[in-house]
Amino acid sequence: MSIVSIIRPLVVKALKDLYEADMAEQDLTINSTKPEFEGDYTIVLFSFVKQLKKSPEQLGNELGEKLVNDNPTVFSAFNVIKGFLNLTVSEAYWLDFLQKNYADFSFGSMPANGQKVMVVEYASPNTNKPLHLGHLRNIF
Q: Is residue 58 within a helix (H) or strand (E), and if so which, with residue range?
């Protein structure tokens, strides 16, 4: 289970508690936070501004406070930058995740589905330059 699939229902529940708004999980846009900003995951708030009749900053602050206060084992901090709510995932969540999955040797593997998989690799050198030995080495 990915962290985004954990964040989605928490955000939907917080929106329902705060504003009595029925949002679908697929309506949320959750991305990794850009490296120049503090946080781990970013929730884009612009799609809710009109419906909830709040400014992006006000909506972000209220939602961020609700998420951090109600879920301290998942979130440790938040910040709002121009309509983007950046959430920091707590160390407690990551420690718990590692403890649960450390001994699982099949973690990350997909179960067999009876289909064969073929991996195809191809060389794609720059077509505007001639091929040289370095390209050939990588191809072979």
A: helix 56-70
